[in-house]
């Protein structure tokens, strides 16, 4: 077990439109403190963790909207030092725990759906990822304030950093002198094979992914508008697990997924399903509630070797000369009718 590491997904329960930043911060600090007390070295938090999942609302008040982002400019410094949230990062550093956490990033020139990976040793941002696949629409499909919209295309620009892996140098000593190779995705990204493969091609061993996935929104999804809440929930959980388990397996990597769960505002249900998946695609630990909860497992990064060296030895078995369409085409082009 030369490269074994204790890791956690920190699931976060309901955060309402009216929940204060201070309350959320307290809950996050409790989670990271609890993780540290159990010798966890890396904790993955959800997408847009510091606030409710605001892209579900059609927000016309610019001041309210601005408040959902962390302003990150030359003057403010990195997110770890911004006034709203620095207490969380200071606590993680004090405890010596690496964290990945998602938030709305406002650079002053553009807004992104972002996740940072922060070293528990130094408090430095080791890597920043901006969500590439933004689901939903720019315009609300329904102006009823109780409706669940999905307005990420309105509130964020598509991520412009690509799928760049990095070394978690902070964990080098914990992992037998070889720093883990880490990749990041945010929510909807996990449904697209392209990002996973980009990370697979960089030898990623731990994929970190936070999400907010609605458990019931037939108006948004299309399809059966009379679907029951139970069936919708089961479908959403099934698809979440299906994509994560399949892509972890085909890219021979561990994946830590972390949910914003619970029912926001009493009417916007989100699935839980925070889990740690191994390179064979099996779930090794999984959340049991819809509330704030740590999902913990000790993983051995050497378990990635079998898949990477045999079945999914990418250099040996891939035929990139046949994959041109993947980068040449954006959408579907069926063959012509004869
Ligand atoms: N936050 C986010 O990306 N949510 C999307 C909902 C898409 S509608 C199926 C997700 O992929 O979970």
TrEMBL record:
Protein's name according to its UniProt entry: CN hydrolase domain-containing protein
Presence of the UniProt keyword Hydrolase in the record: yes
Coiled-coil zones: none
Recorded superkingdom: Eukaryota
PANTHER family membership: NITRILASE C965.09-RELATED
Annotated CN hydrolase domain residues: 5-301
Alphabetically ordered keywords of this record: Hydrolase
Pfam families: CN_hydrolase
PROSITE patterns: CN_HYDROLASE
Species per Swiss-Prot/TrEMBL record: Kwoniella pini CBS 10737
Region annotation Disordered: where it falls in the sequence: 317-338
Basic and acidic residues: compositionally biased ranges: 320-338
GO molecular function annotations of the record: hydrolase activity, acting on carbon-nitrogen (but not peptide) bonds, in linear amides
């Amino acid at each position: 077990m030369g490269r074994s590491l204790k890791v956690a997904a920190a699931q976060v329960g309901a955060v309402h439109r009216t929940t204060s930043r201070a309350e959320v911060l307290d809950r996050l600090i409790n989670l990271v403190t609890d993780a540290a007390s159990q010798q966890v070295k890396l904790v993955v938090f959800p997408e847009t963790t510091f606030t409710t999942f605001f892209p579900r609302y059609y927000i016309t008040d610019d001041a309210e909207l601005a408040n959902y982002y962390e302003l990150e400019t030359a003057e403010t410094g990195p997110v770890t030092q911004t006034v709203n949230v620095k207490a969380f990062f200071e606590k993680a550093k004090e405890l010596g725990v690496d964290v990945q956490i998602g938030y709305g990033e406002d650079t002053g020139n553009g807004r992104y759906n972002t996740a940072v990976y922060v070293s528990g040793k130094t408090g430095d941002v080791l890597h920043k990822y901006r969500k590439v696949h933004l689901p939903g629409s720019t315009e609300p499909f329904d102006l009823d304030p109780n409706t669940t919209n999905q307005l990420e295309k309105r509130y964020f620009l598509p991520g412009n950093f690509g799928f760049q892996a990095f070394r978690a140098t902070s964990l080098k000593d914990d992992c037998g002198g070889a720093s883990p190779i880490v990749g990041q995705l945010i929510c909807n990204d996990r449904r697209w094979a392209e990002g996973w493969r980009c990370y697979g091609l960089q030898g990623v061993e731990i994929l970190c992914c936070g999400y907010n996935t609605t458990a019931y929104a037939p108006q948004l999804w299309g399809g059966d508008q009379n679907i029951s809440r139970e069936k919708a929930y089961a479908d959403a959980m099934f698809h979440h697990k299906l994509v994560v388990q399949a892509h972890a397996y085909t890219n021979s990597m561990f994946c830590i997924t972390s949910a914003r769960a619970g029912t926001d505002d009493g009417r916007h249900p989100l699935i839980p399903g925070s889990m740690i998946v191994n390179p064979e695609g099996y779930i090794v630990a999984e959340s049991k509630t819809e509330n704030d909860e740590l999902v913990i497992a000790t993983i051995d990064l050497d378990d990635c070797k079998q898949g990477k060296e045999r079945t999914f030895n990418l250099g040996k078995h891939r035929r990139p000369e046949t994959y041109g369409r993947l980068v040449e085409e954006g959408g579907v082009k069926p063959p012509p009718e004869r």
